[in-house]
Amino acid sequence: MFKKILIANRGEIALRVIRTCREMGVKTVAVYSTADAESLHVRFADEAVCIGPPPSSESYLKMSAILAAAEITNADAIHPGYGFLSENAKFSKLCEEHGIKFIGATSEMISKMGDKASARATMKAAGVPTIPGSEGLLETYEEAEKLANEMKYPVMLKATAGGGGKGMRAVYAKSNLRNAWDAARQEAFACFGNDGMYMEKLIEEPRHIEIQIIGDSFGKACHLSERDCSIQRRHQKLTEEAPSPFMTTALRKKMGEAAVKAAEYISYEGAGTIEFLVDKHRNFYFMEMNTRIQVEHPITEQVIDYDLIYEQIKVAAGIPISGKNYFPKLHSIECRINAEDPYKDFRPSPGKITTLHIPGGHGIRVDTHVYAGYTIPPNYDSMIAKLITTAQTREEAISKMKRALDEFVIEGIKTTIPFHRQLMDHPDYIAGNYTTAFMEGFEIQPETDK
Who contacts 438 (Cβ-Cβ below 8 Å, separation ≥6)? Predict the structure, then answer.
């Protein structure tokens, strides 16, 4: 087992990893930018190293600074969390070259699955259902136009290096294809330095359902069942639940088997997620693989009583998994609490938290790094907390969430709590009748003060 792990991240995920390490008797090193000097992950770690000024490019994305911090503190492993360098093949390779274990996928695996066109071809070869589309990258606009005519509209243009909805455009008619092609390529190049595009048939009214998997260094993988992540805004997840209200026992078994097959085909090591689009007829198609821990991992932990970070660290240390597949025993819902104003198109709302009251009680979990008096910097992602409720049934989990949202007090900034309150009261959400298009018709209403 590792003696000391450096967490190459910030905020709640850094704190989450520190807590599990402490339970395992493993020392931790926090890294931080000057904007995060007062963050809880800095206070809770055994050691902390400042790695640069607020911009991510000069701190959390600066590989040389992070590796230097690992070397001066004698850390023998690095946990990247999610985002930042968690799916960076070059960083994984550098860790390997410096004799530091990267707690995540190998550089080869990240390269293979991080490129979406390559991942799609790999999954097709593994026998996992994929969305009809281009074989590899589209070299020219004319090639895209020809394929769109053959597949019939609507189609979806996607950046091969994309993520978070960047470089994606839905195209419903030939007249819109040229503008979508140019815009998607420009956005992809600006965000990822890679304007490679591929095309898929647009699956209308889909559910976004992902299967959590764990693979070890002995070629064995297992699945930990599914999460429904269909409530999204501009391809950014807002709330998730496990299990999915759309799932059947037969479909869960089939999708779980496909995810394990995919992981074992590529000899995947570590925690990962196989993401699928599921149409209204419950046909499922591989969308992408995330070679890291996910923001929404706590709901899986809650429904199967399993510490995913603990398992990640064990696998990285060369300990084999049991090989057992897991199925949900309970129901869990996660609401992402963001420092955003839902009444102003979810505009970021950084600033000082003047008052904070965190909800409690049976079945309530809050993962957060903020506290009263903490100032949220404007430099990073706006998520400040994850509110998770767990109960015997979905109805009970929703009731708990309503109560917990009413108890959650954050003053000094705007948050997405009012949005989540209204979502929990929405008849379609209560009925489990939602798709990735749900937010297109959702209008947040003014609330009376609570």
Answer: 230, 231, 232, 428, 429
Cα(255)–Cα(258) distance, rounded to whole angstroms? 5
Question: pLDDT tens-digit profile of 132-150?
Answer: 889 889 999 999 999 999 9
Global confidence as pTM: 0.89
What is the fold, at CATH topology level, of the domain defined by 207-441?
Answer: D-amino Acid Aminotransferase; Chain A, domain 1 (3.30.470)
- pLDDT(450) > 60: no
pLDDT tens column, 293-323: 999 999 999 999 999 999 999 999 999 999 8
Q: Which is the catalytic residue, given 10, 227, 292, 365?
A: 292
Look at residue 116 in the predicted model and tell me its pLDDT.
Answer: 78
What's the whole-number average pLDDT of the chain?
Answer: 95
Is domain 4-103 classified as CATH 3.40.640.10? no
Q: Where are the domains of the chain?
A: 4-103, 132-201, 207-441
Nearest to 349 by CA among 408, 308, 398, 410: 410
User: What value does the mean pLDDT take over residues 4-17?
Assistant: 98
pLDDT of residue 449: 58
Neighbours of 262 (CB within 10 A): 26
- Cis status of the peptide bond prior to 243, with omega within 30 of 0: yes
Give pLDDT, residue 43: 97
The CATH H-level (homologous superfamily) assignment of domain 132-201 is ATP-grasp fold, A domain (3.30.1490.20)
Q: Is 292 a catalytic residue?
A: yes
